[in-house]
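Example 9 (inverse folding). The structure is encoded as follows.
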């Protein structure tokens, strides 16, 4: 969800105002995904690298996350959305973690869209954590090293019950992955738009989905005909 800072700078506003506008865009996209029948939506809220940002901005983002969850849970319940999170959540401030856990507990029985928040998340860190858990099982004699395959690695990722994404949308025009779901996006279709995240809405989302449906997903194979 790139472009919050640039959106604010273009309007001569502080970066936090761009993040607030980005929160409104997130609300629009969650609603649109529910209307369009999307089953899983994972949004990159805060990366493991974002901890290196100025402390005032980090604190503002943590406060904004608390505010967003507190304000949106009622709508999530009304729209049957289940909230989940992935990342190194132990790094979160206690108040942020408490609010996040409250939102997940409150919505855990909902059966519509699953909204995954990637918070304090890094794709490489996720793979390292999975390797550590697998190594521990091998050490304890619970897992034969010869039995390790793609399925067993996927089983040890942060949210193993979430299917690999079919479409990855990157706003703001940057042509890179930025350490996002590195294991899961092996065959994900990529869609990059110059639109800044605060300006991204249902119309842009539909364009991305239409672009996805216009592509052939071969998964390394040759399709006949």
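The amino acid assigned to each position is listed next.
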């Amino acid at each position: 969800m790139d472009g919050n800072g640039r959106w604010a700078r273009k309007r001569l506003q502080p970066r936090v105002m761009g993040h607030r506008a980005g929160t409104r865009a997130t609300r629009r996209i969650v609603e649109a995904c529910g209307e369009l029948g999307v089953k899983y939506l994972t949004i990159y809220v805060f990366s493991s690298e974002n901890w290196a940002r100025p402390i005032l901005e980090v604190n503002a983002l943590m406060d904004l996350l608390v505010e967003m969850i507190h304000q949106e849970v009622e709508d999530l319940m009304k729209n049957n959305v289940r909230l989940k999170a992935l990342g190194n959540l132990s790094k979160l401030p206690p108040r942020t973690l408490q609010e996040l856990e409250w939102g997940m507990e409150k919505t855990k029985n909902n059966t519509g869209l699953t909204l995954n928040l990637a918070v304090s998340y890094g794709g490489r860190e996720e793979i390292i954590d999975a390797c550590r858990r697998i190594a521990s099982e091998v050490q304890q004699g619970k897992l034969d090293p010869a039995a390790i395959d793609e399925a067993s690695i996927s089983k040890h990722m942060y949210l193993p019950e979430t299917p690999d994404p079919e479409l990855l949308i990157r706003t703001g025009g940057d042509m890179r992955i930025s350490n996002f779901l590195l294991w899961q996006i092996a065959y994900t279709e990529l869609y990059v738009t110059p639109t800044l995240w605060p300006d991204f809405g249902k119309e842009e989302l539909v364009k991305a989905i239409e672009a996805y449906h216009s592509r052939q997903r071969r998964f390394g194979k040759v399709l006949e005909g």
